[in-house]
Design brief:
Distance between the termini: 37 Å
CATH class of the largest domain: Alpha Beta
CATH topology of the largest domain: TIM Barrel
Bound molecules: NADP nicotinamide-adenine-dinucleotide phosphate
Strand content: 15-25%
Strand order of the largest sheet: 7-6-5-4-3-2-1-8
Number of domains: 3
CATH architecture of the largest domain: Alpha-Beta Barrel
Number of strands: 20
Helix content: 25-40%
Number of helices: 19
Length: about 550
């Protein structure tokens, strides 16, 4: 619904726009200033600083990623003192388009001054070279008509334009409500209309995108839902017709909740490449912000020339996810626990193995709009093993009887392996073994048993998990050990196996192989596995989880 090709986006010409809400007879400055830049870049980097030195050093760094910068003057103790530096900065960097913002405390900013001081400061920022100034709609409504007219004339004389913004820090209203807010702003005829809300669900993004679509036919509009759940709006609002979106300079310097860094928006979420034809995928779960799937998949999309992107979706309820899949729409979703099971009744079809496992980690939206389910965890376990051994008749021990174990056991039995399950709760192992035609063993009997391979599907050894090893050293009786855990990359179990001269497979290989299979299902192309492995490994070395 939201991927329609927008009708020619009407760029309103400044000269056609009334400059003030009142005093049409107000004299214009004798010399018409140069037209302010209305055709701005898609990406505005918002910078703040505890001191002017910090603010301008961050602005200097931001220039590498975008020539469009918002200066949050309200982050400074004395914003007015930074104006000479703003003037010098903008004179030195004529390629930069600047927004000046000095939001007052009651409206969600840090500025403790009065409305008059804010207006005066924004006017001076325009005179110092800022191209756009941001005034909150509440401030515009509080100001007197002559005060506003004088302000607009001063901006015009300085060659700057006005952006009027509204911020709702508690919720996102339905599209009608957001449109009303946009119209409340539009009544002042600013050059930019900015409506910011707070996302409490993924569906809130749909409201924002609808509002952007509606309003973009008449105005330069910006629409964003703050918070982690609002990521879709940050990435996709320009496609729906927004003039631009905001990013932070880097992780840790965000000026609003849910802001992502400019590099993330550009490199992982492909802001500059997204167009009407871009296929949108998601990885859904909670928590999800640290998922490596978007990085892995965008690397594959880029390498194989697929016009697609993957976004992390913080899901609180399945209904919320299903609404976004249907209405955005999403082309496919990688789902994590507990959604892997919850989603089953909503599938139009799934392959027989996925049905037997009773969990699906991959959704594909068919051309008919229906959902089809797959379990690529199976490929994540089978592929690394079959590259190293013949699975038919192989004696394989699976430690654990949870979700990942089910994929391993059903997948391996299907390949003709002789599978034995050991689990802390023996009854669960016995039940799984019965269903999958596998064997079951008590842990006490392990020391006397021998296998071709051992697969750990318990969380033992995972960063932050108390228990380090799922078995004792004398129970490690196999030629090959496969640990599904991949944080850390080398788990205590793999270290122990290596020290005993055993072959090992890391959980990272499973992660990449299950992702490779997803890529094949979604695109019909072979996955660039080595490239996918390389980026994920590099990321985990840079930022161990
Ligand atoms: P799950 O459904 O919760 O199952 C966990 C299993 O581990 C259960 O059988 C549980 O035994 C057992 N277990 C838990 N704590 C234990 C302990 N202290 N000692 C012995 N056994 C213990 O979890 P899951 O979804 O299967 O995931 C399991 C692991 O696989 C996770 O660490 C996850 O990161 C990893 N995984 C990796 C990938 C990948 O791509 N590499 C993909 C999926 C999962 P009880 O039945 O007694 O509770």
């Amino acid at each position: 619904m939201l991927q329609r090709t927008p009708k020619a986006f009407k760029m309103r010409q400044l000269k056609q726009m009334p400059l003030a809400v009142s005093s049409p007879t107000e004299p214009l400055p004798a010399q018409a200033p140069a037209l302010p830049r209305l055709r701005v870049s898609k990406l505005c980097i918002a910078v703040q600083g505890a001191t002017p030195a910090e603010l301008f050093s961050r602005a200097e760094s931001a220039r590498k990623d975008s020539g469009f910068i918002e200066f949050r003057l309200d982050s400074l103790h004395k914003p007015a003192a930074a104006l000479p530096e703003l003037k010098t900065f903008l004179a030195r960097h004529r390629d930069v388009t600047a927004i000046a913002t000095c939001r007052r405390k009651p409206l969600g900013g840090h500025f403790t001054g009065s409305l008059n001081s804010e207006i005066e400061l924004l006017q001076k920022a325009a005179e110092a070279g800022a191209h756009i100034v941001d005034l909150e709609v509440e401030s515009a409504e509080q100001a007197t008509r002559p005060q506003l007219a004088k302000f607009r004339a001063a901006l015009r004389a300085a060659g700057a334009v006005l952006l009027i913004s509204s911020h709702d820090f508690s919720r996102t209203r339905r599209p009608d409500g957001l449109n009303q807010t946009a119209q409340r702003i539009a009544a002042f005829e600013p050059e930019f209309v900015k409506v910011v809300s707070t996302a409490r669900s993924l569906t809130d993004n749909l409201s924002v995108l609808h509002m952007v679509q509606d309003q973009s036919l008449n105005a330069h509009v910006v629409g964003i839902a703050m918070g982690e759940e609002g990521l879709i709006s940050r990435v996709l609002s320009p496609r729906a017709g927004a003039a631009f979106t905001f990013a932070s300079l880097s992780e840790g310097t965000e000026t609003a909740a849910g802001q992502v860094s400019a590099r993330t928006l550009l490199d992982i979420y492909r802001l500059e490449q997204i167009d009407q034809a871009t296929r949108i995928f998601g990885v859904a779960g909670n928590p999800i912000s640290h998922s490596l799937s978007p990085l892995m998949h965008v690397t594959a999309f880029r390498r194989e020339n697929v016009n697609a992107v993957m976004l992390p979706l913080k899901v609180k309820t399945l209904d919320d996810l299903l609404t976004v899949i249907r209405d955005l729409p999403l082309d496919g979703v990688a789902v994590t626990m507990p959604l892997k099971q919850e989603v089953l009744p909503h599938l139009a079809n799934m392959d027989p193995l996925t049905a037997r496992i009773g969990a699906c980690n991959t959704l594909r939206t068919g051309a008919d709009g229906k959902l089809y389910g797959f379990n690529t965890d199976v490929a994540g376990i089978i592929r690394p093993l079959e590259r190293r051994m013949r699975l038919k008749g192989a004696r394989i021990l699976v430690l654990g009887a949870g979700g990942a174990a089910r994929a391993a056991v059903f997948g391996l039995v299907e390949q003709g392996a002789d599978v034995t399950i050991v689990n802390r709760t023996h009854e669960k192992a016995a039940a799984l073994a019965r269903k999958a035609k596998a064997h079951v063993l008590k842990q006490a009997a392990l020391a006397k048993s021998r296998f071709d391979a051992i697969i750990n599907t318990t969380p033992c050894g995972m960063t932050g998990f108390k228990q380090q090893l799922p078995v004792k050293e004398n129970e490690l009786n196999a030629a090959l050990v496969f640990d599904l855990v991949y944080t850390p990359m080398e788990t205590p179990l793999l270290k122990l196996a290596k020290s005993r001269g055993l072959a090992v497979i890391s959980g990272l290989e499973m992660f990449v192989q299950q992702g490779a299979r997803q890529f094949e299902i979604w695109t019909g192309k072979p996955a660039p596995e080595s490239e996918m492995l390389r980026v994920v490994e590099l990321e985990l070395r840079r930022h161990p989880q």
